[in-house]
Amino acid sequence: MKTKAAVLFDAGKPFEILELDLDGPGPGEVLIKYTAAGLCHSDLHLIDGDLVPRFPIVGGHEGAGVIEDIGPGVTKVQPGDHVVCSFIPNCGRCRYCATGRSNLCDLGATILDGHLPDGSYRFHANGTDVGAVCMLGTFAERATISEHSVVKIDDWLPLTTAVLVGCGVPTGWASANYAGGVRAGDTTVIYGIGGIGINAVQGAAHAGAKNVVVVDPVGFKRDTALEVGATHAFATAAEAAAKVGELTWGQMADQALITVGTVDEQVVTDAFNVIGKGGTVVVTGLANPEKLTVHVSGGVLTLFEKTIKGTVFGSANPQYDIVKLLRLYDAGKLKLDELVTTKYTLDQVNEGYQDLRDGKNIRGVIVHAE
Ligand code: CXF
Ligand code: ZN
User: Fold this and answer.
1) What is the atom index within ligand 1 of the atom nearest the CA of 112?
2) Which of 21, 134, 192, 286 has the maximal Cβ count within 10 Å?
């Protein structure tokens, strides 16, 4: 069959909208019609050359849609099921899945190669194999993906909202609740209010943090953070650090969550300095893996018993937490609709990413054609 898709051919080049050939599902695979796709900052890292995928590759790793067909042996879902995609496949069998850490599933090792778990591709352009970001390629109207990449959700939920729970929402919410271990009464500082940071705010507030202090240079992002649970918002790290000193009588923060689009040495240093004894810095945002971004005093790390930890997906469990977060939304305890700044068509994908670069979007969402 044919499908329209937004394809990256090289770093530094915009998405090209093309008609691709798409193979139907083989064993363990499903055909999905994507309803919506989120514009996560990570796809910009591919354009900017910070992360290097195998090109050409269909963009998009936040997706929700409806299963149209299943391949042999698939029992997890059936045609008609509504699903949210997990940007990390979870096989359920590897050491990490088997020990409850499916955000580290071994199948995740090749998500930038863009092939399916069996090593082959389902998208093709004039005979050339085209990969799919995170084995998903949600910037396509349809895709053939692994059953390990889907999570069935309740079919009354709006897919154009549920799509956010494929990456940004759990990554942020869980960076506070799981990776950061925020507890009632804590003081939590969050650097960067985008699709992930805004949910770190909701997560920290949900956990009962007394002070949820955000840092972002963009005024409307600070205002949005204050609407979803932040208690204080500052344009600079220095202003935030001064306030945290006051709020905690000098003890400083319990957690600093780094959710900026591109992590650098400055933000890691700011975060390390804003936490107090026993505090934790969580590095959720990405940077070019070749770049060294953590330069802190080992003496302070030891004597103040500080922790610096990285996290993928906030250390959440896709199969469990995607459903859980949607149920929190359904119960009115998690804001999702308010997080979508702008909706785009697939043809407008480059415009959507320009808006993200320009600081105009908390989260942009592509709504695919019917
Ligand atoms: C990223 C991780 C690296 C590949 C693209 C997706 N995760 C979330 O945004
Ligand atoms: Zn993402």
Assistant:
1) 4
2) 134
